Amino acid sequence: MTEQRKSTSNAAAKRLFGRIAGRKAKIGIVGLGYVGLPLACVFAEKGFAVTGFDLDSGKTDRLMAGRSYIRHIPARRIAPLVKAGSLKASADFRAMKAMDCIIICVPTPLSRQREPDLSFVANTAAEIARHLKPGQLVVLESSTYPGTTDEVVRPALETRKLKSGRDFFLAYSPEREDPGNETHGTAAIPKVVGGDGPVALDLALALYGAVVVKTVPASSPATAEAVKLTENIFRSVNIALVNELKVIFDAMGIDVWEVIDAAKTKPFGFMPFYPGPGLGGHCIPIDPFYLTWKAREFGIATRFIELAGEINTLMPRYVVDRLVAALSERAGKALKGARILVVGLAYKKNVDDMRESPALTLIDMLEAQGARVDYHDPIITVIKPSREHPHLSGRRSRALTDATLKGADAVLIVTDHDTIDFKRVGKLAKLVIDTRNTMARAGWRGRNIVKA
């Protein structure tokens, strides 16, 4: 880099540092889903001018009207920000040219072959490149394999002869959202940051340091990418462990939830994880396989991670087997023709997110064996289109009436929303298959309860 280019780069960085420090920097956030929208709100609440970009004009129109489409981010939080002009939303990506900092929060799903699908990231980077100007900071937040920022995003941004570290600045900071978590919101969660060079790192640390409780520098974008995968692989492996223990202890007549509750009284050396009907959400079922895919490039087998994925993927089958056995033993019924009510469609309690939800897989498996399946979810009243279960799109939640509960041959609890009266479920249902230990926590231990 020539002295003139260094001087230009330093001047651009100095200007951007000043705009961030004075909260004058304009923030563009691409992708207004469960990660992008709360991040946009936090930046706007901290005094920055924010524009959210999304191809879905339905989302941008609702936001500009002060309305929300995500349950745990209410309109009362959005409307004042829109009214004040600190939060805008647009489907016109040409406005990115006016941004000082652009943060990418788009999905990173898996293909049917469990390989990374980076089309959203690549397309977004290509779109940013068309409007990129010198002096901007671009940060990728999407969960991905180590090397994505360097191998996918940077080349896409450099297609117009602008160079990272010279003309613009590039960094990676993994999202750490936990939808519905009222204790650890976006601003209260430390942000790990890796920059493409020391100036980019310092700029990204300054940006996030202005809105979150703490920033944690990483030596490179790849290291920061690895941090995110490590966090979710840790959870995936430990959930797989307790899921396997659930199967073993059930065969022994031991309640795995009682075992975990007793074990967690140890003040060191143990961290409680809980079994369930399968993994859901965008992170834990998907992120570990980004690393297994990347590891193959280096000739390394990720047996431990893949085994955990296999165990977690098989949990819906275990649940169905438990339901079939319970129907036969307790009611003398076959699954074929039986009326099954699935309670809870969301992947976790108290959110309206059904991505990768095991409930969808369970509905498919039950219907494939001839069961007649309805579902009830007070938050997800209509099943949205999904890549893996498009045929379920449009189905509506059934009201949890006395007649509905009494008419079901079995009620299968998949998601334990707080708004559901589970004591009433236990009182009225002939048979309850409980995958979350919900009935015990609700204080109901009837003979009609089977844990699965």
Describe the structure.
About 45% of the residues are buried. The chain is elongated, with a radius of gyration of 24 Å. The model has no long low-confidence stretch (mean pLDDT about 95). The chain has 15 helices and 13 strands. It is an alpha/beta fold and about 450 residues long. The strands form 2 sheets. It has an 8-stranded mixed sheet, with helices on both faces. A 5-stranded parallel sheet has the order 10-9-11-12-13. The chain folds into 2 domains: about 220 residues, 3-Layer(aba) Sandwich (Rossmann fold); about 190 residues, NAD(P)-binding Rossmann-like Domain (Rossmann fold, 3-Layer(aba) Sandwich).
Whole-number tally of structural domains: 2
- The Rg value, from CA coordinates, equals 24 Å
Q: What's the story with the biggest beta sheet?
A: 8 strands, mixed
Q: Which structural class do you get from the secondary structure elements?
A: alpha/beta
Q: Strand order of the main beta sheet, please?
A: 3-2-1-4-5-6-7-8
Strand percentage, roughly? 5-15%
| CATH topology group of the largest domain | Rossmann fold
Mean pLDDT: 95
Q: Output the helix-strand order.
A: HEHEHHEEHEHEEHEHHHHEHEHEHEHE
- The CATH superfamily label of the largest domain reads NAD(P)-binding Rossmann-like Domain
User: Helical element count?
Assistant: 15
CATH class of the largest domain, named: Alpha Beta
Mass-distribution shape? elongated
Helical content class: 40-55%
Tally of strands: 13
Under the CATH scheme, the architecture of the largest domain is 3-Layer(aba) Sandwich
Terminal residue distance: 63 Å
Low-confidence stretches: none
